[in-house]
Amino acid sequence: MTRGAGVHELLSSVQHLPSWLIYVVAALVVAAETAVIVGLVAPGEATLLLVGFLAYTGTLRLGPALLVMIVAATVGDAVAFRAGRRYGPRLRASRWGARVGPHRWARADAMVARMGGRGVFTARWVAFARTLVPRLAGAAGMPYRRFAPWNLAGVITWVGASVLAGRLAGESYHTVSRLLGQATGAVLALVAALVAVVLAGRWLGRNPDPVRALLKRAARLPPVRWLSARYGLLFFLLSMRFGPTWALLANLTAGVGLLFLVALAVAGTMRVAVRHSGLALVDGVIGGWFAARRTPDAVEVTQLAVSVLRGSVLIALVAVVAAVQAWRHRPWQADLLSVVGTIGAFVPLVVLALVTELAADGRVAQFSTQSAVVTASLCMLAWLLSREARWPVAVALWTTAVAGVVGIGGARLYLGLSTASGTVAAVLLGAAWTAVFMVAWATRDRALAAGNAPRRGPRGDHLADR
């Protein structure tokens, strides 16, 4: 029996169960995701999609299903919050908490304090984060009157979107059966890609000159140590002859080449994730839906928008914004991260454009070059402009960036220039590529702040004053 047939039979058997039993079991699963940390191994989206599908078949009623799932998720989060409030200090004092380390607990507390309710709302849309954040918020001492409204907003939007998605997909019964298993693997692949992006960004933040850092590690290898011992003086004389300016240019060139290889790796990861997600199975359905709604006037306007919002135009805009910021603040230094994070912020976008052009030729994957570059460019612009802006301005900038990404992706789908799977892969590629540098810059900022902070003695007095 194939996996699709097994899922098909499971859904058929569930339909014959009493509706009250389905409500109870689904509610327990959704509540347990956060209440007993089941969500670390079994995220609740599959249950909500199944509830939506059963609402489509008439087994469940949509209104009561939404209400029960919202109440279940809210109760689960309240239990998790209470557990964090009650057992958080005991957990920190335990042997496991000591292994985590006080500095990590302090960083977690700082994250919750910094993001506050916005972090609670956002975490509801991230599979593993929504399992841990209610406990973390309770342990950090966040008032429940502040936690509850943000959490309720996240629960309502997340449950509503998931259940309605399952109901709208009800017309494709066999497609849903096949996608349920494939989507789980794709989610795991995307989580692994997210972890890789964060780790790569943190490494780049700690090693802002990656080529030099890799060369130092390579110098510890036995063959290189032998060459250095035998011809070290010759290498020294050649480096003196080369000069610092040419050495910097060579280092930056090698760094850009390294970024190109990293971009290829990220593109390959996005290809695997989207290919195994099963999204390509509905490309034809989505394309036909858009094609049935095309009108001559709308096509003309959409074509104009696609032609104006090109990647090259946005890359040039990023270059201008980065140059103005660098001229005002002059914060960059002579290393790769400082260059690509300030005056050379357009360089990663050029590298990404080259990679996606290769992808468009079929040698890496099938991507929409415009969607990938537009996503990365708009995210880079929002990041550059929001680093020193107040929170409402930063939210407006990022909202505009998201609207632009959705707009250009939807326009290309409307015109039939891209498939749904290709658009999703391109957007993920552009967002992941920008996230690498955002994480790297944040890591470097924290490292610099820690290095400039005054050290304190065991009694709290400044060591610098002794």
TrEMBL record:
<feature type="domain" description="VTT">
    <location>
        <begin position="43"/>
        <end position="167"/>
    </location>
</feature>
<feature type="transmembrane region" description="Helical">
    <location>
        <begin position="150"/>
        <end position="170"/>
    </location>
</feature>
<feature type="transmembrane region" description="Helical">
    <location>
        <begin position="336"/>
        <end position="355"/>
    </location>
</feature>
<dbReference type="InterPro" id="IPR032816">
    <property type="entry name" value="VTT_dom"/>
</dbReference>
<feature type="transmembrane region" description="Helical">
    <location>
        <begin position="20"/>
        <end position="42"/>
    </location>
</feature>
<feature type="transmembrane region" description="Helical">
    <location>
        <begin position="273"/>
        <end position="292"/>
    </location>
</feature>
<feature type="transmembrane region" description="Helical">
    <location>
        <begin position="367"/>
        <end position="386"/>
    </location>
</feature>
<feature type="transmembrane region" description="Helical">
    <location>
        <begin position="421"/>
        <end position="442"/>
    </location>
</feature>
<feature type="transmembrane region" description="Helical">
    <location>
        <begin position="304"/>
        <end position="324"/>
    </location>
</feature>
<comment type="similarity">
    <text>Belongs to the DedA family.</text>
</comment>
<keyword id="KW-0472">Membrane</keyword>
<feature type="transmembrane region" description="Helical">
    <location>
        <begin position="62"/>
        <end position="81"/>
    </location>
</feature>
<feature type="transmembrane region" description="Helical">
    <location>
        <begin position="224"/>
        <end position="242"/>
    </location>
</feature>
<feature type="transmembrane region" description="Helical">
    <location>
        <begin position="182"/>
        <end position="204"/>
    </location>
</feature>
<feature type="transmembrane region" description="Helical">
    <location>
        <begin position="393"/>
        <end position="415"/>
    </location>
</feature>
<dbReference type="Pfam" id="PF09335">
    <property type="entry name" value="VTT_dom"/>
</dbReference>
<feature type="transmembrane region" description="Helical">
    <location>
        <begin position="248"/>
        <end position="266"/>
    </location>
</feature>
<keyword id="KW-0812">Transmembrane</keyword>
<dbReference type="InterPro" id="IPR032818">
    <property type="entry name" value="DedA-like"/>
</dbReference>
<protein>
    <recommendedName>
        <fullName>VTT domain-containing protein</fullName>
    </recommendedName>
</protein>
<keyword id="KW-1003">Cell membrane</keyword>
<keyword id="KW-1133">Transmembrane helix</keyword>
